[in-house]
Amino acid sequence: MGKLYMGFDAGTQSVKVAVYDENFSLVASHALPTQIDYPQPGWVQMDVDNYLDNCVECMRLVVEDLRSLGRDPAEVAAIMGDGIICGIVGIDENARPITPYINYLDSRTMPDVEALNAQKLDIWGRETGNPEASPMFPAMFARWFLKNSPAFVEKGVKFVHNAPYILMNLAGLKAEDAFIDWGAMSGWGLGFDVKAKRWSKAQLDILGIDEKYMPRILKPWDIVGGLCDAFAEKTGLAAGTPILAGAGDTMQSMLGSGVFEAGQGVDVAGTCAMFCVSTNGIIPELSKPGMGLIFNSGTLPDTYFYWGTVRTGGLALRWFKDNVALKPGESAYYGQLSEGAAKVPAGSNGVLFLPYLTGGSGDEKNASGCFLNMTMDDDQYVMWRAVLEGIGYDYMGVADQYRGAGVPLNRITVTEGGSRDELWNQIKANMLDAEVIRYRNAGGAVLTNCVFGAWATGSINDVKAALARVIEENGRYAPDAELSKRYRALYESRTTLVKHDLREAFDRLVAMRER
């Protein structure tokens, strides 16, 4: 009946697997939530096998759906996945995990980050585009493992990201065959040459990380092997099905949003709310110390982008729904919250939410999540709007940096789960004073993976053209000039509050937590 392509997205809060046909129409999909652990304040970690198990189960369920639709699972011509670019796990020679999986939400490396940044080395910015270390960088997690994990020091062979971990297990590979694509490589933040697409010995020597621990660097569309017999039996897919090297989630989301050239803005509204802009390379003004932006390589050759982030942006939404509104497992409740919040005036009656649930960064490293300025008149809808706006204020700061470097940002594409919320899209348009565009394929990373599967196996010869055919606009949000002006005034007050008025209070609050 024709070829099929399977893709997966191993995100922070869930794993999604989908199959698309040769016209890139969705045939079947399934998703399962992940388990996130918080062993102590500032620490966030996961079991990487939770990713593998979820992916395999979703693959099995998708195969069942294919059979019920009269499709032969053997028609799946390729498997490609994407995952988190800022997160690693240490594995032994048999590719088994011997450390927890730590990602960008974790802050345990902050003291090490500060000590490294105090050296003021210029090699970071020159080779990576990232002038300073960050507690979300895998390079810092690797240093932490080497200092604090006796098991890894004794038996560790490689550090790998979550999508490559899944893919190499599906292919039955050992640690000696561990890999990473050149986009996810740049998620390390430090330790690589972003233009040459290779590990940097000079940087790794400074970091104290032996290059033997680093996986080999591949192109995202390279075929690393075929589905092994064990996982063919577990999933119902044909043994030997080609498996690709995979890509970073942000990189694939940007391509799936039609970002094919420099100068385009994208809001990746996932767990880590990321505000990205595509470039032709390093922009010195954006790669200065103190900017707080991160520079990465894209999936395709000679593509690059900067991003600013609210680390718990999307996670704050889930936290509020599950822990405040007490509606865990009820995704539809997001819509009810936004329906009520749409009736709340812009500015949330003066209520502010600071989305620093896993800590702040830079000069505001001790910032914590909190609601401010509430009265008896406020309810969960006011609080929900304050959460949405709280993330938006941090976006405004990033947008100011881009515009200050000459990037106009008159139009911004939104993608991933948060893009489905009409209220939040309109709030962003007003706060950023820019037109916001949404495409039908919100969260297009999985579809993009399937397009690459078709390209890698010779079924198509132009990835961009194939994506352009299937991307369809289904939402446009214009800014309201008066509301943009109001948000700008509120932003200035909020910035003063966070950067000056509350700094001493945050320091005192952190000390209270540790007693």
From TrEMBL:
**GO molecular function list:** kinase activity
Instruction: Answer yes or no on keyword Iron-sulfur.
Output: no
Question: What is the organism lineage in this UniProt record?
Answer: Bacteria, Pseudomonadati, Pseudomonadota, Betaproteobacteria, Burkholderiales
Family, according to the entry, reads as follows: Belongs to the FGGY kinase family.
Q: Which organism is it from?
A: Sutterella massiliensis
Q: Which UniProt keywords apply?
A: Kinase, Transferase
Name all Carbohydrate kinase FGGY N-terminal domain ranges: 4-256
Q: Where is the signal peptide?
A: none
Transmembrane intervals: none
Pfam families given for it?
FGGY_C (PF02782), FGGY_N (PF00370)
Q: Which Gene3D superfamilies match?
A: 3.30.420.40
Which domain of life does this protein belong to? Answer: Bacteria
What name does this protein carry? Carbohydrate kinase
